[in-house]
UniProtKB/TrEMBL annotation:
<feature type="domain" description="Membrane insertase YidC/Oxa/ALB C-terminal">
    <location>
        <begin position="7"/>
        <end position="198"/>
    </location>
</feature>
<keyword id="KW-0809">Transit peptide</keyword>
<dbReference type="Pfam" id="PF02096">
    <property type="entry name" value="60KD_IMP"/>
</dbReference>
<feature type="transmembrane region" description="Helical">
    <location>
        <begin position="160"/>
        <end position="180"/>
    </location>
</feature>
<feature type="transmembrane region" description="Helical">
    <location>
        <begin position="6"/>
        <end position="28"/>
    </location>
</feature>
<dbReference type="GO" id="GO:0005743">
    <property type="term" value="C:mitochondrial inner membrane"/>
</dbReference>
<dbReference type="GO" id="GO:0032979">
    <property type="term" value="P:protein insertion into mitochondrial inner membrane from matrix"/>
</dbReference>
<protein>
    <recommendedName>
        <fullName>Membrane insertase YidC/Oxa/ALB C-terminal domain-containing protein</fullName>
    </recommendedName>
</protein>
<comment type="similarity">
    <text>Belongs to the OXA1/ALB3/YidC family.</text>
</comment>
<dbReference type="InterPro" id="IPR001708">
    <property type="entry name" value="YidC/ALB3/OXA1/COX18"/>
</dbReference>
<feature type="coiled-coil region">
    <location>
        <begin position="29"/>
        <end position="63"/>
    </location>
</feature>
<keyword id="KW-0472">Membrane</keyword>
<keyword id="KW-0175">Coiled coil</keyword>
<keyword id="KW-0999">Mitochondrion inner membrane</keyword>
<keyword id="KW-1133">Transmembrane helix</keyword>
<dbReference type="InterPro" id="IPR028055">
    <property type="entry name" value="YidC/Oxa/ALB_C"/>
</dbReference>
<feature type="transmembrane region" description="Helical">
    <location>
        <begin position="80"/>
        <end position="101"/>
    </location>
</feature>
Length: 269
């Protein structure tokens, strides 16, 4: 590097600069989260109604409720499609830098093998103490909880998806991070750290006002709220003990009808 910046510092500076250039992503995510918090009860009602319709096997009703929800979200300017496009673009930038660093480590780019610091002096090698993968996983867990990137509060997600986001994703990050080079882990830690900085910044009312982000609507906590593991277990038990669906009843009736048609006629003497 011409500025005599070590490679670990260059990775951090480049990552911070990119995240600052893409500040529109957390801004849009926070706006979406604010709108969803405002209509949390209504959105939860749609989700519960669709769950009940699915349990009954009434696909027509599921579609009807889905269309109602879509019209409701459109009327409240909750546009998930627009958010998806922004997140996809942000993800493309993330993956581009991620794979660029990976390829540089793979070919042994000059200076990377000695451009580390502290215990990870060789950026092309894996962290021998697994500290960087652990930090990556821990920060990812915190990012998932605050929902700064996706604009969705984990509490509004279905139980299984929430379990995957809060626990499955960090475990996967640690598992993969332990196989990645230290340079890639430095990048990952920095990116997650910037997400947490944004999350902390958007707790400030002045910053939210500057970026035209509405305040989050705080709903009272449900004293009977179960933890995510209990909710997933309860859902699994419900699926095992579900009442027969309309589709299954129709299928059973059809089977009985076919069997009756193949039976021998009764001849009265």
């Amino acid at each position: 590097m011409h500025l005599d910046v070590p490679w670990w510092g260059a990775i951090i500076v480049a990552t911070v600069a990119l995240r600052l250039l893409l500040i529109s992503v957390p801004v849009m995510s926070q706006r979406l989260q604010a709108k969803q918090s405002k209509y949390k009860n209504e959105l939860a009602d749609y989700r519960d109604r669709m769950d009940e319709a699915r349990k009954e096997g009434n696909n027509l009703l599921v579609q009807q409720i889905f269309l109602e929800q879509r019209d409701f979200m459109k009327s409240k300017d909750i546009r998930l499609g627009r958010q998806f496009v922004v997140l996809a673009a942000n993800g493309a930038v993330f993956m581009t830098q991620f794979f660029a660093i990976k390829e540089m480590c793979k070919v042994g780019y000059p200076g990377l093998s000695t451009g580390g610091s502290l215990w990870f002096t060789d950026l092309t090698a894996c962290d021998p103490y697994y500290l960087l993968p652990f930090i990556s996983a821990a920060t990812m867990a915190m990012v998932a909880r605050v929902g700064i990137e996706g604009g969705a509060n984990p509490e509004t997600m279905p139980p299984l998806m929430r379990l995957g986001m809060l626990y499955g994703l960090p475990i996967a990050v640690f598992a993969f991070g332990s196989q990645f080079s230290s340079a890639m882990c430095v990048y990952w830690c920095t990116s997650n750290g910037m997400s947490l900085v944004y999350a902390a910044a958007f707790r400030n009312a002045a910053i939210r006002k500057f970026f035209n982000v509405p305040e989050l609507v705080k709903h009272p906590m449900n004293p009977n709220q179960k933890n995510v593991f209990a909710e997933v277990l309860e859902k699994w038990r419900e699926n095992k003990t579900n009442q027969p669906t309309i589709s299954s009843l129709k299928a059973d009736d059809m089977q009985r009808f076919k069997k009756a048609g193949r039976g021998k006629p009764v001849i009265k003497g």
